[in-house]
Amino acid sequence: MLCLALAATPLIAQESTPDPNTTLTMFPHSDNTTWLLLGQMNTIAQGHGRFHSPYSGQNSLQSIFEVKESEVATLYTGWQPHHNLRYNTDLLADFENAGGRGISQALGLAGQTNLDVVRNPSLSTAPYLSRGGIHQTIGLTNELNDADRGPFSLATKVPVRRFEIRVGKMSMPDTFDINDVGTDSHLQFTNWTLDNNGAWDYAADTRGYTVGGIIEYDDRIWSLRYGIAAMPVVANGIDLDWAFNRANGQNWEFEQRHSFIPAHKGTTRILGYMNHAHMGNYRQAVQQYLNHQIATPDITQSEKFGAIKYGFGFNQEQDITTNLRAFTRFGWNEDQHESYAYTEVGQSISGGIDYVMTNFHRANDKFGIAYVSNAIKRDHQNYLRYGGQGFLLGDGGLTYAREDILETYYNAHAWRGLYGALGFSYIAHPGYNAARGPVAVPMARIHIDY
Protein backbone atom coordinates (compact mmCIF):
# COMPACT_ATOMS: atom_id res chain seq x y z
CA MET A 1 0.00 0.00 0.00
CA LEU A 2 2.71 2.46 -0.75
CA CYS A 3 2.68 5.43 -3.12
CA LEU A 4 4.59 4.95 -6.32
CA ALA A 5 5.92 8.21 -7.62
CA LEU A 6 7.17 7.67 -11.16
CA ALA A 7 8.21 11.21 -11.90
CA ALA A 8 10.92 10.28 -14.38
CA THR A 9 12.91 13.08 -15.95
CA PRO A 10 11.10 14.08 -19.19
CA LEU A 11 12.54 12.34 -22.22
CA ILE A 12 14.15 14.95 -24.46
CA ALA A 13 13.14 14.60 -28.09
CA GLN A 14 15.83 13.78 -30.66
CA GLU A 15 15.76 15.08 -34.22
CA SER A 16 18.69 13.80 -36.28
CA THR A 17 20.09 10.68 -37.82
CA PRO A 18 20.31 8.11 -35.04
CA ASP A 19 23.79 7.94 -33.51
CA PRO A 20 24.34 5.48 -30.66
CA ASN A 21 26.71 7.97 -29.00
CA THR A 22 24.36 10.98 -29.05
CA THR A 23 20.81 9.59 -29.38
CA LEU A 24 19.54 8.83 -25.89
CA THR A 25 16.40 6.97 -26.94
CA MET A 26 16.13 3.68 -28.83
CA PHE A 27 14.28 5.48 -31.63
CA PRO A 28 14.61 9.12 -32.75
CA HIS A 29 11.70 11.46 -32.02
CA SER A 30 10.74 14.54 -34.00
CA ASP A 31 10.04 17.92 -32.42
CA ASN A 32 7.74 18.87 -35.30
CA THR A 33 4.86 16.41 -35.01
CA THR A 34 1.52 17.19 -33.36
CA TRP A 35 1.67 13.86 -31.55
CA LEU A 36 4.03 12.26 -29.04
CA LEU A 37 4.80 8.59 -28.49
CA LEU A 38 7.49 7.65 -25.97
CA GLY A 39 8.15 4.71 -23.70
CA GLN A 40 10.38 3.48 -20.90
CA MET A 41 11.16 0.29 -19.00
CA ASN A 42 12.90 0.16 -15.65
CA THR A 43 14.06 -2.93 -13.75
CA ILE A 44 15.63 -2.70 -10.30
CA ALA A 45 17.10 -5.60 -8.30
CA GLN A 46 18.01 -5.11 -4.64
CA GLY A 47 18.84 -7.34 -1.73
CA HIS A 48 20.48 -7.52 1.68
CA GLY A 49 22.04 -10.06 4.00
CA ARG A 50 21.42 -10.83 7.65
CA PHE A 51 21.71 -7.97 10.12
CA HIS A 52 21.40 -7.44 13.87
CA SER A 53 17.75 -7.82 14.95
CA PRO A 54 16.95 -8.85 18.54
CA TYR A 55 13.22 -8.68 17.74
CA SER A 56 10.89 -7.89 14.84
CA GLY A 57 7.21 -7.32 14.16
CA GLN A 58 4.61 -7.54 11.45
CA ASN A 59 5.98 -4.57 9.51
CA SER A 60 9.69 -5.04 10.12
CA LEU A 61 12.46 -5.13 7.57
CA GLN A 62 13.28 -8.84 7.52
CA SER A 63 16.66 -9.75 9.00
CA ILE A 64 17.16 -12.71 6.65
CA PHE A 65 18.94 -12.82 3.30
CA GLU A 66 16.61 -11.68 0.52
CA VAL A 67 16.74 -10.43 -3.09
CA LYS A 68 13.79 -8.72 -4.79
CA GLU A 69 13.18 -7.26 -8.22
CA SER A 70 10.72 -4.68 -9.55
CA GLU A 71 9.68 -3.85 -13.10
CA VAL A 72 7.86 -0.77 -14.42
CA ALA A 73 6.97 -0.02 -18.04
CA THR A 74 5.28 3.18 -19.22
CA LEU A 75 3.84 4.32 -22.56
CA TYR A 76 3.57 8.12 -22.88
CA THR A 77 1.19 9.52 -25.50
CA GLY A 78 0.20 13.10 -26.33
CA TRP A 79 -1.52 15.15 -29.01
CA GLN A 80 -1.68 18.86 -29.80
CA PRO A 81 -5.12 19.54 -31.37
CA HIS A 82 -4.01 22.93 -32.75
CA HIS A 83 -0.78 24.83 -33.44
CA ASN A 84 -0.61 27.97 -31.35
CA LEU A 85 2.58 28.62 -29.38
CA ARG A 86 0.95 31.20 -27.14
CA TYR A 87 -2.12 29.10 -26.33
CA ASN A 88 -0.83 25.55 -26.61
CA THR A 89 -3.06 22.61 -25.64
CA ASP A 90 -1.76 19.10 -24.87
CA LEU A 91 -4.02 16.09 -24.51
CA LEU A 92 -2.07 13.47 -22.53
CA ALA A 93 -2.64 9.80 -21.73
CA ASP A 94 -0.02 7.49 -20.22
CA PHE A 95 -0.35 3.76 -19.62
CA GLU A 96 1.72 1.72 -17.22
CA ASN A 97 2.19 -1.64 -15.63
CA ALA A 98 4.19 -2.38 -12.49
CA GLY A 99 5.27 -5.71 -11.06
CA GLY A 100 7.74 -7.36 -8.77
CA ARG A 101 8.40 -6.63 -5.10
CA GLY A 102 10.58 -4.53 -2.87
CA ILE A 103 12.73 -5.95 -0.11
CA SER A 104 10.53 -7.16 2.77
CA GLN A 105 7.44 -6.29 0.69
CA ALA A 106 8.44 -2.59 1.01
CA LEU A 107 7.97 -2.69 4.79
CA GLY A 108 10.22 -1.70 7.66
CA LEU A 109 11.79 1.47 6.24
CA ALA A 110 10.54 5.04 6.11
CA GLY A 111 13.13 5.72 3.40
CA GLN A 112 12.35 2.72 1.24
CA THR A 113 15.16 1.79 -1.13
CA ASN A 114 13.10 1.41 -4.35
CA LEU A 115 10.74 4.14 -5.51
CA ASP A 116 9.35 1.89 -8.27
CA VAL A 117 7.78 -0.53 -5.78
CA VAL A 118 4.02 -0.66 -5.30
CA ARG A 119 3.44 -1.42 -1.62
CA ASN A 120 0.25 -3.46 -2.02
CA PRO A 121 1.26 -6.93 -3.34
CA SER A 122 -2.37 -7.85 -4.07
CA LEU A 123 -2.74 -5.25 -6.84
CA SER A 124 -3.01 -6.56 -10.38
CA THR A 125 0.01 -6.29 -12.68
CA ALA A 126 -2.29 -5.56 -15.65
CA PRO A 127 -1.69 -2.24 -17.46
CA TYR A 128 -3.57 0.78 -16.10
CA LEU A 129 -4.03 4.46 -16.94
CA SER A 130 -1.36 6.25 -14.91
CA ARG A 131 -1.89 9.78 -16.19
CA GLY A 132 -4.50 11.36 -18.40
CA GLY A 133 -5.78 14.87 -18.87
CA ILE A 134 -5.34 18.32 -20.37
CA HIS A 135 -2.34 20.63 -20.17
CA GLN A 136 -3.27 24.15 -21.28
CA THR A 137 -0.87 27.07 -21.73
CA ILE A 138 -2.19 30.64 -21.68
CA GLY A 139 0.55 33.00 -22.83
CA LEU A 140 0.69 36.58 -21.57
CA THR A 141 3.36 37.70 -24.06
CA ASN A 142 4.55 36.84 -27.56
CA GLU A 143 8.14 36.55 -26.32
CA LEU A 144 9.13 32.87 -26.30
CA ASN A 145 11.68 30.68 -24.53
CA ASP A 146 12.96 27.31 -25.71
CA ALA A 147 11.51 24.31 -23.86
CA ASP A 148 12.32 20.61 -23.77
CA ARG A 149 9.64 18.42 -25.28
CA GLY A 150 8.65 15.55 -23.00
CA PRO A 151 5.79 13.39 -21.74
CA PHE A 152 4.15 16.19 -19.71
CA SER A 153 4.45 19.04 -22.25
CA LEU A 154 4.78 18.80 -26.04
CA ALA A 155 5.70 22.43 -26.79
CA THR A 156 9.29 23.24 -27.80
CA LYS A 157 8.75 26.98 -27.22
CA VAL A 158 6.69 28.60 -24.46
CA PRO A 159 5.78 32.21 -23.61
CA VAL A 160 8.14 33.83 -21.12
CA ARG A 161 5.15 34.88 -18.98
CA ARG A 162 2.31 32.39 -18.94
CA PHE A 163 -0.25 30.41 -17.01
CA GLU A 164 -0.18 26.61 -17.21
CA ILE A 165 -3.25 24.61 -16.20
CA ARG A 166 -3.34 20.83 -15.69
CA VAL A 167 -6.52 18.88 -15.04
CA GLY A 168 -6.97 15.12 -14.87
CA LYS A 169 -5.17 12.10 -13.47
CA MET A 170 -1.61 12.88 -12.45
CA SER A 171 1.20 12.37 -9.99
CA MET A 172 1.87 15.47 -7.88
CA PRO A 173 5.71 15.07 -7.98
CA ASP A 174 5.51 15.48 -11.78
CA THR A 175 5.00 19.21 -11.10
CA PHE A 176 5.91 19.90 -7.44
CA ASP A 177 9.23 19.34 -5.60
CA ILE A 178 11.14 18.67 -8.82
CA ASN A 179 14.91 18.53 -8.48
CA ASP A 180 17.22 17.81 -11.43
CA VAL A 181 19.72 16.00 -9.19
CA GLY A 182 17.29 13.98 -7.06
CA THR A 183 13.92 13.19 -8.70
CA ASP A 184 14.33 10.27 -11.09
CA SER A 185 14.50 6.66 -9.85
CA HIS A 186 15.15 5.54 -13.42
CA LEU A 187 18.49 7.29 -13.91
CA GLN A 188 19.40 8.66 -10.47
CA PHE A 189 18.84 7.69 -6.82
CA THR A 190 16.19 5.09 -5.96
CA ASN A 191 15.33 5.95 -2.34
CA TRP A 192 11.86 7.40 -1.67
CA THR A 193 13.21 10.14 0.57
CA LEU A 194 15.97 11.19 -1.83
CA ASP A 195 13.84 11.38 -4.99
CA ASN A 196 10.99 13.09 -3.10
CA ASN A 197 10.67 15.08 0.09
CA GLY A 198 9.92 12.35 2.64
CA ALA A 199 7.90 14.69 4.87
CA TRP A 200 5.60 15.70 1.97
CA ASP A 201 2.59 13.41 2.43
CA TYR A 202 1.27 14.23 -1.03
CA ALA A 203 -2.20 13.17 -2.21
CA ALA A 204 -1.99 9.83 -4.03
CA ASP A 205 -3.41 6.35 -4.27
CA THR A 206 -1.29 3.26 -3.64
CA ARG A 207 0.41 3.58 -7.03
CA GLY A 208 1.22 7.25 -6.51
CA TYR A 209 -1.49 8.82 -8.68
CA THR A 210 -4.47 11.04 -7.98
CA VAL A 211 -7.07 13.17 -9.75
CA GLY A 212 -7.03 16.93 -9.47
CA GLY A 213 -5.95 20.22 -10.95
CA ILE A 214 -2.88 22.46 -10.92
CA ILE A 215 -2.57 26.10 -11.94
CA GLU A 216 0.87 27.63 -12.38
CA TYR A 217 2.17 31.09 -13.22
CA ASP A 218 5.63 31.33 -14.80
CA ASP A 219 7.71 34.48 -15.19
CA ARG A 220 11.31 35.05 -16.24
CA ILE A 221 13.01 33.93 -13.04
CA TRP A 222 10.19 32.70 -10.82
CA SER A 223 7.08 30.52 -10.78
CA LEU A 224 4.15 30.06 -8.45
CA ARG A 225 1.90 26.98 -8.50
CA TYR A 226 -1.14 25.65 -6.62
CA GLY A 227 -2.68 22.20 -6.81
CA ILE A 228 -5.66 20.43 -5.28
CA ALA A 229 -6.10 16.66 -5.54
CA ALA A 230 -8.13 13.74 -4.21
CA MET A 231 -6.97 11.85 -1.13
CA PRO A 232 -7.30 8.06 -0.72
CA VAL A 233 -10.33 6.69 1.16
CA VAL A 234 -8.05 4.89 3.65
CA ALA A 235 -4.39 5.41 4.44
CA ASN A 236 -2.30 4.36 1.45
CA GLY A 237 -5.36 2.85 -0.27
CA ILE A 238 -6.02 2.36 -3.97
CA ASP A 239 -9.48 4.04 -4.00
CA LEU A 240 -9.79 7.83 -4.00
CA ASP A 241 -12.34 9.88 -2.06
CA TRP A 242 -14.19 11.95 -4.68
CA ALA A 243 -15.85 14.25 -2.12
CA PHE A 244 -13.41 17.18 -2.33
CA ASN A 245 -15.41 19.14 0.24
CA ARG A 246 -14.38 16.67 2.97
CA ALA A 247 -11.10 15.18 1.68
CA ASN A 248 -8.43 16.85 -0.42
CA GLY A 249 -4.74 17.58 -0.57
CA GLN A 250 -3.73 21.17 -1.29
CA ASN A 251 -0.22 22.18 -2.33
CA TRP A 252 1.56 25.49 -2.86
CA GLU A 253 5.04 26.04 -4.26
CA PHE A 254 7.19 29.07 -5.01
CA GLU A 255 10.16 28.59 -7.33
CA GLN A 256 12.96 31.06 -7.94
CA ARG A 257 15.54 30.39 -10.64
CA HIS A 258 18.60 32.12 -9.23
CA SER A 259 22.15 30.85 -9.02
CA PHE A 260 24.56 31.41 -6.14
CA ILE A 261 27.43 30.81 -8.58
CA PRO A 262 27.70 33.16 -11.59
CA ALA A 263 27.16 31.60 -15.05
CA HIS A 264 25.71 28.40 -13.53
CA LYS A 265 22.12 27.24 -13.08
CA GLY A 266 20.49 27.30 -9.66
CA THR A 267 16.91 26.93 -8.43
CA THR A 268 15.22 27.21 -5.04
CA ARG A 269 11.72 25.90 -4.29
CA ILE A 270 9.59 26.38 -1.17
CA LEU A 271 6.65 23.99 -0.75
CA GLY A 272 3.66 23.98 1.58
CA TYR A 273 0.82 21.49 1.83
CA MET A 274 -2.35 20.75 3.80
CA ASN A 275 -4.29 17.48 3.70
CA HIS A 276 -7.90 16.99 4.78
CA ALA A 277 -8.87 13.32 5.12
CA HIS A 278 -10.34 10.60 7.34
CA MET A 279 -7.16 10.46 9.42
CA GLY A 280 -6.26 9.17 12.85
CA ASN A 281 -4.20 10.82 15.58
CA TYR A 282 -1.12 9.16 17.11
CA ARG A 283 -1.55 10.88 20.48
CA GLN A 284 -5.18 9.80 20.76
CA ALA A 285 -4.34 6.24 19.73
CA VAL A 286 -1.69 6.02 22.46
CA GLN A 287 -4.05 7.54 25.04
CA GLN A 288 -6.71 4.97 24.18
CA TYR A 289 -4.12 2.24 24.79
CA LEU A 290 -2.93 3.73 28.09
CA ASN A 291 -6.55 4.04 29.25
CA HIS A 292 -7.01 0.30 28.51
CA GLN A 293 -9.65 1.03 25.86
CA ILE A 294 -7.74 -1.06 23.31
CA ALA A 295 -5.18 -3.84 23.73
CA THR A 296 -2.67 -2.33 21.27
CA PRO A 297 -2.46 1.20 19.85
CA ASP A 298 -4.50 1.27 16.65
CA ILE A 299 -4.50 4.45 14.58
CA THR A 300 -7.70 3.46 12.78
CA GLN A 301 -9.64 3.70 16.05
CA SER A 302 -9.07 7.46 16.18
CA GLU A 303 -9.80 8.26 12.53
CA LYS A 304 -12.35 10.96 11.71
CA PHE A 305 -13.23 13.40 8.96
CA GLY A 306 -12.07 16.96 9.48
CA ALA A 307 -8.53 15.91 10.45
CA ILE A 308 -5.81 18.13 9.01
CA LYS A 309 -2.17 17.29 8.34
CA TYR A 310 0.15 20.07 7.15
CA GLY A 311 3.81 20.67 6.45
CA PHE A 312 6.38 22.45 4.32
CA GLY A 313 9.53 21.75 2.34
CA PHE A 314 12.65 23.45 1.04
CA ASN A 315 14.36 22.25 -2.13
CA GLN A 316 17.52 23.67 -3.68
CA GLU A 317 19.70 22.60 -6.61
CA GLN A 318 22.89 24.25 -7.80
CA ASP A 319 25.31 23.64 -10.66
CA ILE A 320 28.82 23.98 -9.24
CA THR A 321 30.84 23.29 -12.39
CA THR A 322 29.94 22.16 -15.89
CA ASN A 323 29.82 18.54 -14.71
CA LEU A 324 29.14 18.77 -10.96
CA ARG A 325 25.75 19.54 -9.37
CA ALA A 326 24.52 19.55 -5.78
CA PHE A 327 21.11 19.45 -4.11
CA THR A 328 19.56 19.69 -0.68
CA ARG A 329 16.04 19.20 0.70
CA PHE A 330 14.41 19.81 4.04
CA GLY A 331 10.88 18.72 4.97
CA TRP A 332 8.71 18.98 8.07
CA ASN A 333 5.13 18.08 8.97
CA GLU A 334 3.17 18.17 12.22
CA ASP A 335 3.33 14.32 12.48
CA GLN A 336 0.56 14.13 15.03
CA HIS A 337 -1.95 12.91 12.45
CA GLU A 338 -1.20 9.64 10.76
CA SER A 339 1.07 9.27 7.75
CA TYR A 340 -1.59 8.80 5.11
CA ALA A 341 -0.40 8.67 1.52
CA TYR A 342 3.39 8.61 1.09
CA THR A 343 5.65 7.43 3.91
CA GLU A 344 6.10 7.63 7.68
CA VAL A 345 8.32 10.69 8.01
CA GLY A 346 7.80 13.77 10.18
CA GLN A 347 11.08 15.48 9.33
CA SER A 348 13.63 14.85 6.61
CA ILE A 349 16.90 16.47 5.61
CA SER A 350 18.93 15.33 2.62
CA GLY A 351 21.73 16.43 0.33
CA GLY A 352 23.96 15.07 -2.36
CA ILE A 353 25.82 15.54 -5.62
CA ASP A 354 26.02 14.05 -9.07
CA TYR A 355 28.91 14.20 -11.52
CA VAL A 356 28.77 13.73 -15.31
CA MET A 357 31.80 11.74 -16.47
CA THR A 358 32.66 13.97 -19.43
CA ASN A 359 36.29 14.27 -18.38
CA PHE A 360 36.55 10.48 -18.57
CA HIS A 361 35.14 10.39 -22.13
CA ARG A 362 31.78 9.10 -20.83
CA ALA A 363 29.55 12.15 -21.39
CA ASN A 364 26.32 10.22 -20.74
CA ASP A 365 27.50 8.42 -17.60
CA LYS A 366 26.83 9.80 -14.16
CA PHE A 367 27.97 9.16 -10.59
CA GLY A 368 25.89 10.24 -7.61
CA ILE A 369 26.08 10.11 -3.83
CA ALA A 370 23.57 11.43 -1.29
CA TYR A 371 22.63 11.25 2.38
CA VAL A 372 19.21 11.52 4.03
CA SER A 373 18.23 11.58 7.69
CA ASN A 374 14.57 10.97 8.54
CA ALA A 375 12.78 11.44 11.86
CA ILE A 376 9.36 11.16 13.52
CA LYS A 377 7.98 13.15 16.46
CA ARG A 378 7.23 12.03 20.00
CA ASP A 379 3.59 11.00 19.45
CA HIS A 380 4.52 8.87 16.46
CA GLN A 381 7.46 7.39 18.38
CA ASN A 382 5.23 6.40 21.31
CA TYR A 383 2.72 4.82 18.96
CA LEU A 384 5.40 2.50 17.55
CA ARG A 385 7.05 1.95 20.95
CA TYR A 386 3.82 0.56 22.43
CA GLY A 387 3.35 -1.84 19.50
CA GLY A 388 1.28 0.21 17.05
CA GLN A 389 1.38 -0.56 13.33
CA GLY A 390 1.56 1.98 10.52
CA PHE A 391 1.12 1.10 6.87
CA LEU A 392 4.93 0.76 6.62
CA LEU A 393 6.41 0.52 10.11
CA GLY A 394 5.88 -1.55 13.24
CA ASP A 395 8.59 -3.67 14.89
CA GLY A 396 6.44 -4.36 17.94
CA GLY A 397 8.67 -2.03 19.97
CA LEU A 398 11.01 0.88 19.41
CA THR A 399 14.34 2.15 20.69
CA TYR A 400 14.18 5.44 18.84
CA ALA A 401 16.90 6.91 16.64
CA ARG A 402 16.84 8.83 13.40
CA GLU A 403 16.82 6.69 10.26
CA ASP A 404 20.04 7.61 8.42
CA ILE A 405 20.65 6.47 4.83
CA LEU A 406 23.61 6.86 2.47
CA GLU A 407 23.08 5.98 -1.22
CA THR A 408 25.47 5.99 -4.14
CA TYR A 409 25.15 4.92 -7.79
CA TYR A 410 26.97 4.83 -11.11
CA ASN A 411 24.69 5.05 -14.15
CA ALA A 412 26.31 3.98 -17.44
CA HIS A 413 25.00 4.68 -20.94
CA ALA A 414 25.45 1.53 -23.02
CA TRP A 415 23.81 2.23 -26.40
CA ARG A 416 21.14 4.65 -27.57
CA GLY A 417 18.41 4.45 -24.91
CA LEU A 418 19.93 1.57 -22.94
CA TYR A 419 21.42 2.27 -19.50
CA GLY A 420 22.80 0.09 -16.73
CA ALA A 421 23.51 1.11 -13.15
CA LEU A 422 25.07 -0.28 -10.01
CA GLY A 423 24.38 1.24 -6.61
CA PHE A 424 24.62 0.75 -2.88
CA SER A 425 22.66 1.93 0.17
CA TYR A 426 23.75 1.85 3.80
CA ILE A 427 20.93 2.20 6.33
CA ALA A 428 21.43 2.94 10.02
CA HIS A 429 18.47 2.44 12.40
CA PRO A 430 15.93 1.01 9.90
CA GLY A 431 12.41 2.09 10.81
CA TYR A 432 13.88 4.52 13.41
CA ASN A 433 14.93 1.56 15.57
CA ALA A 434 18.40 1.77 17.12
CA ALA A 435 18.05 -1.88 18.24
CA ARG A 436 18.07 -3.11 14.62
CA GLY A 437 20.57 -2.85 11.79
CA PRO A 438 22.63 -1.47 10.16
CA VAL A 439 21.69 -2.82 6.73
CA ALA A 440 23.64 -2.80 3.46
CA VAL A 441 21.54 -2.92 0.24
CA PRO A 442 23.31 -3.31 -3.13
CA MET A 443 21.35 -2.37 -6.29
CA ALA A 444 21.46 -3.22 -9.99
CA ARG A 445 19.27 -1.43 -12.55
CA ILE A 446 18.55 -1.67 -16.27
CA HIS A 447 16.71 1.20 -17.91
CA ILE A 448 15.50 1.64 -21.51
CA ASP A 449 14.09 4.80 -23.10
CA TYR A 450 12.25 4.19 -26.37
Strand tally is: 18
Spell the H/E element sequence. Answer: EEEEEEEHEEEEHEEEEHEEE
Report the oligomer. Answer: single chain
How many helical stretches?
Answer: 3
For this structure, the CATH topology is: Porin
Taking pLDDT < 50 over at least 5 consecutive residues as the criterion, the unreliable ranges are: 1-18
Give the helix proportion (percent range).
Answer: under 10%
Write down the overall mean pLDDT.
94
Shape: globular
| Beta-strand content bin | 35-45%
CATH homologous superfamily annotation: Carbohydrate-selective porin OprB
CATH class: Mainly Beta
The CATH architecture comes to Beta Barrel
**Rg measurement, Å:** 22 Å
Q: How many strands, which pairing sense, and closed or not: the largest β-sheet?
A: 16 strands, antiparallel, barrel
Taking strands numbered 1, 2, ... along the chain, how are they ordered across the largest sheet? Answer: 1-2-3-4-7-8-9-10-11-12-13-14-15-16-17-18
Query: Which class do the helix and strand fractions yield?
Result: mainly beta
Give the domain tally: 1
**How far from one another are the termini?**
29 Å
